[in-house]
Specification:
Blueprint: H1 12-15, E1 53-56, E2 71-74, E3 109-118, E4 122-125, E5 128-132, E6 136-148, E7 151-162, E8 171-182, E9 191-205, E10 213-227, E11 233-244, E12 246-249, E13 252-253, E14 256-269
Antiparallel strand pairs: 1-2, 3-6, 3-14, 4-5, 6-7, 7-8, 8-9, 9-10, 10-11, 10-12, 11-14, 12-13
Length: 270
Amino acid sequence: MPANSAATPATPAQQVPAAPRPAAAAPRPEPAAQPVAPAAQPPVPAYQPSAPVLVPAPVYQQQGQPAPDSAYTQPSPNAPPPAYVPPDQPQAKPISASEDKGGTTRESIAVSLIAGPMFGTTLGGDNHPEVKTGTTGMVRLALDGYLIPQFSMGTYLLYTSLSPEQGSESADLWAFGGTFKGCFGRANTFQFRPGLAMAYQYEKPSFSGVSSAKGFGIAVVGDVAFPIGQGGLMGLFQLSFVSQPAGGGDGYGLTFPPAIYLAGGLEFGK
C-alpha cells in the first residue's frame, strides 16, 4: 500500500470526544397567586320602626280605691329621638312712645300752652293810615299730632292785642290755623322742631266807626322742647311771628309785616 495510505496514529483528543456540558436548567415558574374572595357579609336590614308597646302605667293609689284605666306608650329603642321643641317664649310687652326713652319715637298727641311778648309792627293797607304798634303780649294754645316720629300736623289758637304806640285805641287779633312741623331729636330729650304756620285771622278794633277786618296769616315757627318731668311733660320755647299779607274790612285794606314774638310754656303729650 502506498506510504501515505498508512494509518496515522490518533491523538487522545481524537480518540475520545469530549462530552457536551449540560445546559443550565430553566427556572421553574412560580404559580400565580389566586385572588381570595371576601367573605360574604350578611345584608343590612332596612330600618323598620317597631310597633309601640303598650305597658300598663304604674299606679299609685291608696288602699280601697280602684286602679284607673291608664297606659302609656314606651318608645322603641330603635326609634329616632324626638324633635326639639323650644319652650313658649313670653310675649314682649309693647313699649309706648312715652316709655321709649332712648328711641326716636315720641308722644302721638301733644298739647301746649305758651305766652310771651310780641314786638311791634306797622299796620297799613288801602284806605288805612300807617300805624305803628308797640310791644304787647300774646298767648297761644296748640294741639299737635305726630303722623310719624319726625313729622307732625297740628292746629292752634293765638290771641294778641295790637295797640298803637300813641293813643289808647287797640284791636284784638285772633288767629286760628294749622301747622306743619318736623322733629329733630330723640324722644324725651332735647328737640328742635321747625315748621310753617298758616291761619285765618280776625281783627276787631275797640274804637267805633271802623268795621272788623279779616285776613290770611302765614309764619315760620321754630320750637325748642326739653323734658322737665315724667309722663311726657316738657318745657317749650317758640320763636315765631304774626303777619298778614292780605286782608281788610269794609272799605279798607289791612296788612302788616311780621310782628316777632318769643314765648315759653309747657307741653304735655301722651
